[in-house]
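thread: overnight batch results

M.L. [08:02]
morning all. the overnight job finished for the chain we discussed friday. pasting input first so we're all looking at the same thing
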Amino acid sequence: MPLHKWHLYCIDVASKECDEVYAILFGNCSDEEEILKLNPKDETLLLENRFNCLKEVCKYYDNVIPVMIDVSKCRNPDWSEDWNAEAPLVRKYIKNMAYVYSSEESYSDYFAHAYPEAEHHIVDAKREKYPISGTLIRAMETLEEKQKWMVWNE
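M.L. [08:03]
and the structure it wrote out:
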């Protein structure tokens, strides 16, 4: 949170390598409520606004489909996210996938379990092309700083 230039870069890479790409926004994640409480005036973090932004970005690609998946009911007893409960929700949109894209090597074991037919493509793991994350953006003090990195639809 929010949609930023690295996300756009990942979508761009996937769109060039695949015939069809699903850009998935997981909404109502376990940490989302806390993030919104800490940033009450930041409308870019609202789920509806983030999904609208993703839909606008995807219009520039003939082969990218935006999807929002509500994961509010995918919780472990400790309230952490239950990724095993998320996988069937993804499967409603994507029955069989050849690739899954992320920047995180640490996701490889999970992806191998959840989507065994898919090859995990790690895109710019060191974030050299766009050295940014949602955490870094939320820590920035001014909107001007944030806007340098964000993809935002006004």
